[in-house]
Amino acid sequence: MAIDWTISRRGLFSGSFAALAGGYLGLGDAQGRAPGANVTPEFISAVRIAGTDGGARLTKDGLAPFALPGRAHAPLRLDGNRIALIGRRPGSFAAIFDSVGIDEGEPARIFTPTAGRRFAGHAGVSPDGATLVTSEIDAETGDGFVVMRDAASAAPKAVFPVGIEPHDLLFARGGDRLVVAIGGIAHAADVKGPALNAGRIESSIVEIAPGTGAVLKRHALPADGKSLSLRHMALAPDGETIVFGMQDQDRSQQRPLLGVLHVGRGLELLPLPEEAGALRSYIGSVAIDVSGRFAAATSPKGGTVGLWRLADGRALPGFRLADVCGLAPGAAPGAFWVTSGHGDVVALEAGDAGFETRAHWRAEAAFDNHLLKL
Amino acid sequence: MAAPSIRLVLKAAAGPPKADVARAISVALAVVDRFIIPAYRRLVEATDAQDKAWAAFAANRAAGDFASLRVAYHSTADAWAHAQIFKTGPISLFLRYERFAYWPEARNVTGRMLDALLASNDPNDLTLATLARDSVAAQGLTALERLLYEGADPAAALKAPDGERRVAVGRGIARNLSGIARDVLADWTAPAGVRAAIAANKGWNNLFMDAPEAASLLLTDLVGAFRLMHDLKLLPVMGASADVARPNSAEAWRSGRSQRDLKLNLTAAQAMTKAFAETVPAAHVTKIDGLYVAANKAVDAVPALLGQAAADPAQRPRVEAARAAVKAVQTEIAAVLPADLGIPLGFNSLDGD
């Protein structure tokens, strides 16, 4: 046990963030080993520190937080070091910043949703880096839209209506298809009340032609899935296979929460992990490893990272971590990183027998739902 | 290179401290036995009386005792204001929480769903089985309030020759509320219910896996009670200033209960805090108690029609004072209780996204 290193970081923030100066970011791995080069973290996450919402870049040198106008949700890499971080639903801002420059005092650029709408916390970028797309919800009616934007300026180029409550979105098939998870939970975006249609949710994943907004295919759930909301997705290295995670609005029964979508074809549901109720009817984030062999999904309510082998859809033993949600693939086959609302940063390695822990860090910070590995 | 600011420390391997199971069981059971089960018992009694009042009214509709329906409604709403702060446990199954009182509502959905129910003549619409899977908006307390308080003369509307369906809908809702309350209480108290699971440090259904997790959910509910009061019942109604206040976003404004419901939520939160606070250091308890005294005083000073007060520049400072006082309790509880009780509060697990 020793103090390992100190880092330099310019004071980018004031107020309660500043109180953190001199605070600790603890790091220790499960086997008591120092982290090797193979577990070097480099991430962006939305974060809350001492009551202040912002974003943070996390490297082996430490946590470099910066304040934002409110709570952010999902980070997205635009190109090189340019990162977008989208405001959490109902979000009134999104930020674009340089992941290195932000640490040197270069401010984030803020952009807003189209008029009368709110961000749903997510964005996607086309493979050529030219188009940024955001999911947005009308603050009055709750109607959902995808907004195609110029990735350099964030200026809107086209708006396509997509149904109730679009959430996560990504480009597949080399950019030919825009795939949007339609959560289907009807809220007026500004009312924090219960869903208007809990139990009768029409959730789906739609494939859209990015140029015209035409819906090319709509993937819906079976008739007994009316309480399920499709919310988060991850694209496999083949560009054709998508893993999606769901949330169940009715917890009186256990229903599938993870599935695989084959672009242009159909979807299949994967089994729940063996431990009954481990995911508590709720998945917050999904990822596929770089080899495309494994899918992982986090449940902050269950404090569980679930693991599936994609070749046969089998659920493998998961990993337990309280309030875990942020999830991203690591650089090596089978590698995943997870973060928690209690400040944990954990490197996991997936295999046919389940997860092994490679490193476990802790920071005095609450990491939000989604994690971007740089 | 800029000045150093955050140090990293490499620690020897040490997992999170093992949850103190015995303490979690004891804390959770104190809350369940002293507060949760009594609150649901009261809800069962009130909804049962309300069911009977509607049955009696329906039996002799033209000469029915309309006042008794309003009394029964208020008694149920009072009981609900205590139970409303729990979102953990069996109330979260089968959409029971939303079905019991759909609020806050958006775009008058309760009004529209209730109109559809009134316009239908299918008696099957009003069975418990149908309501269980029908729209959550038209089957609970918020819909019943409309039957009793909306329109020029709601009593006459129920007694009128064409009021039969209206009374049948009211009866159906009253029966439904009684059924939900009874089911929830049974799920807490049954031999294989939630209380027994906590006592045995076991999981229950799909909701928690052991007593420490149950204790954490209960503490989350306590903090959530303040989000309910502050973020849902006060902030959206107040808006940024009196001229943009939204009086009709206040809870139960039709029946004039907005301030009363808030006050009863605060009373409930205080009772729940007391059940938690047995093992909390005395100095912390004293400080929390003091903040509760101030919050009660501030909420007592808010006029019954909270929404209208928020829109009135002369009365608005009282609403603002209540908001600040409620927030002060929340901040102290969230800062102190998790550490004092050894029970972590969630961040990502708090709300869905």
Topology at a glance:
The complex is a heterodimer of chains A (374) and B (353).
Chain A: E1 2-8, E2 24-27, E3 42-49, E4 52-59, E5 62-67, E6 72-79, E7 82-87, E8 94-98, E9 109-111, E10 117-125, E11 131-138, E12 143-150, E13 156-164, E14 166-172, E15 177-182, E16 204-208, E17 215-220, E18 228-235, E19 241-248, E20 258-262, E21 267-270, E22 285-288, E23 294-299, E24 304-309, E25 314-320, E26 324-329, E27 335-340, E28 344-351, E29 354-363, E30 366-373
Antiparallel strand pairs in A: 2-29, 3-4, 3-30, 4-5, 6-7, 7-8, 8-9, 10-11, 11-12, 12-13, 14-15, 15-16, 16-17, 18-19, 19-20, 20-21, 22-23, 23-24, 24-25, 26-27, 27-28, 28-29
Chain B: E1 4-10, H1 21-59, H2 66-83, H3 96-100, H4 109-119, H5 128-133, H6 141-149, H7 154-159, H8 164-189, H9 194-199, H10 211-238, H11 258-276, H12 282-300, H13 306-310, H14 316-341
Helix pairs in contact in B: 1-2, 1-8, 1-10, 1-11, 2-6, 2-11, 6-8, 10-11, 10-14, 11-12, 12-14
Polypeptide structure, described:
- The complex is a heterodimer of chains A (374) and B (353).
- Chain A is mainly beta and 374 residues long.
- Chain A has a domain at 117-373: Methylamine Dehydrogenase, Chain H (7 Propeller), CATH 2.130.10.10.
- Chain A has strands spanning 2-8, 24-27, 42-49, 52-59, 62-67, 72-79, 82-87, 94-98, 109-111, 117-125, 131-138, 143-150, 156-164, 166-172, 177-182, 204-208, 215-220, 228-235, 241-248, 258-262, 267-270, 285-288, 294-299, 304-309, 314-320, 324-329, 335-340, 344-351, 354-363, 366-373.
- In chain A, a hairpin with a 2-residue loop joins strand 3 and strand 4 (52-59).
- Chain A is globular.
- Chain A starts with a strand and ends with a strand.
- Chain B folds into two domains: 33-199, M75 peptidase, HXXE motif (A middle domain of Talin 1, Up-down Bundle), CATH 1.20.1420.20; 211-341, Four Helix Bundle (Hemerythrin (Met), subunit A).
- Mean pLDDT of chain B is 90; it is low at 1-16.
- Classes of the chains: A mainly beta (374), B mainly alpha (353).
- At the A-B interface, strand 1, strand 2, strand 5 and strand 30 of A face strand 1 and helix 10 of B.
- Strand 1 (2-8) of chain A pairs antiparallel with strand 1 (4-10) of chain B.
